[in-house]
Amino acid sequence: MSGAPIVSVIMAVYNGAALLPETLASLQAQTFGDWELVAVDDCSTDDSAAVLERLGDPRVRVIRSEANGGPVVARNRAFAEARGLYVAGLDQDDISLPERFARQAAYLDAHRDVSLVSCATDFLVDGKRLPGNWPRPLTPVLIDWLMLVQNPIAWSSVMFRADAARRLDPFERPGMRYVEDFDLYQRLRPFGRLAQVDEVLMLYRCHAGGASNVFNCTMRAHAELLLRERHQALLGEDAPDIAALLVRHVMAREPVPDAETLNRLFAGIGLLRAAFGEANPGEELAAVDREISQLWWRVCRASVRAGSLLIHNTLGSQSLPLGQAADLVASQMIGGMRAMKRGLTGR
Description:
Largest sheet: 9 strands, mixed
Strand content: 15-25%
Radius of gyration: 22 Å
CATH architecture of the largest domain: Alpha-Beta Complex
Order of helices and strands: EHEHEHEEHEEHEHHEHHHHHH
Helix content: 40-55%
CATH topology of the largest domain: Spore Coat Polysaccharide Biosynthesis Protein SpsA, Chain A
């Protein structure tokens, strides 16, 4: 292969032989053909490496690790070998739709102030395409806000400037395992804004073996650490101690247990919002306020439906559209029935 490609795709591979063919086919179907895939096989015990090598595409480079080091180590190795102007993330089981690289490369060409651009994403569940649950549309200022409360971007949807990422050492931090992508976005932000093409150009596969389906103690602890660092960078000693609540009730979507927790969570979000506004004078923040309102409703709905909150504990000074108010009433009925069932069964 002569000459450096425009786009380098980096992929950590481990025991992905069953799903790799579909992912690789989605690469070969791209309308933008000037790409390379740098795939690091992390000592798979299946024939993942052979699947990659049998493809026979000169744009695919396969590196076999000598020892299993995990996905962060594998992606760091892949990034070190990448030659492209832009780098695209892609997991071994996700699907890039045909226009993804063309749209994202064109966006980065046209917006020199942007270091990373993602795309809207849908889910792929048992072969069926379902709407994604990431907020959209995402403007750069809304992405900046959301990175204070959750991870708004899927790894397999991103394309970023290689020269910006090479200023990071290391590329991905092994100490941030399971939230390494969220951490990377935070660390790339000083080198340019983060943006999104508001078009579904990637399918995120959901299955039992996916790491994101195992929201384990390590993931929670690292997400809390990352959010706490961001809050302290914005507010210093006055930062609210709500990182654990955000991980539990926003990122993991667990119902809040009581009204006190709900109030503490959103009082902290209010402090962050005030500081964010001061740090972004002149920015249009209406979308930020709409997102906070929607987040409040989603958290309340989940908690009322679970039976841990009653409607009168959630409303406060918030005014809701008729449809959302009716939904909370229905959710309380469901929550009441679940609470009754738990009482009858002792669970």
